[in-house]
Amino acid sequence: MEEPLRDSRTLAVQLRDRIADLIRGEGLKPGDKLPTEAQLTQRFKISRPALREALKLLEQDDVIFVEHGRGRFVSALSAVQVDRPITAFESVTDMARQYGYRPVNRVLSIAEEAPDKRVAESLRLAPKDRVIRIERIRLHDDTPILYCVDYLPRALVPGPLYDIEWSGSLLDLMERYGNRPRMSAASVSAVMLPQDVIDRHGLRDFGPALLITETCFNAAGEPVNYAIDYHRGSHFSFSLTRK
Predict the structure, then answer these.
(1) What is the C-alpha to C-alpha distance for residues 109 and 133, in angstroms, rounded to an integer?
(2) Which contiguous run of DSSP H or E holds residue 133?
(3) pTM: predicted TM-score of the whole model, two decimal places
(4) Residue 226's beta-bridge partner residues?
(5) Which of 95, 107, 141, 180 is least surrounded by Cβ atoms within 10 Å, i.e. has the fewest?
């Protein structure tokens, strides 16, 4: 049966999810062989490079494993269903949509500046390098659900800042410049919003937040984004597997 992909998420991410659904929907068990690349490209009407990227994501998630010369197989971990794994790498907007929210991105400020020590070290910047600082809030039905600050190396984004639409996905924006983030190293903590942020933006009712601070890397392993995301605790929860 033809199952073309028509979704706003990146092809690799949505295809990863569709193959995971296929594994569950067809009752494939640990050790069962996955359909061939030819069968999957035909089923989803997708290119082989996009399919291989999706399969690589499933392999990274330990949902499948590869035996060279034999094919791809369903792993034991596929039997463990985890909703919204904290290890999933995706745009903040896509993540919010997966929770059922209709996020509207409001840009609070855009600036070019000299990075502080933490940002400079995370992005491996030279002493005179500058960054773009993007401060945004995500709302669902006018309710703030995410407060986010992102830093991008200025050298990666040519041209005037006012010529760029900053309210969309930063991952898609960086892809236009050949530096789409593919993975990240992150830390997680439970916090309150900084008081100056609460005062400046009227976020007194935001409450406790899950803070995810991450350095995002492109396919070559180069840091291209330093992100600080406060997820409103009343609206988000994440899961994980232990192995």
Answers:
(1) 8
(2) strand 131-140
(3) 0.71
(4) 151, 215
(5) 141
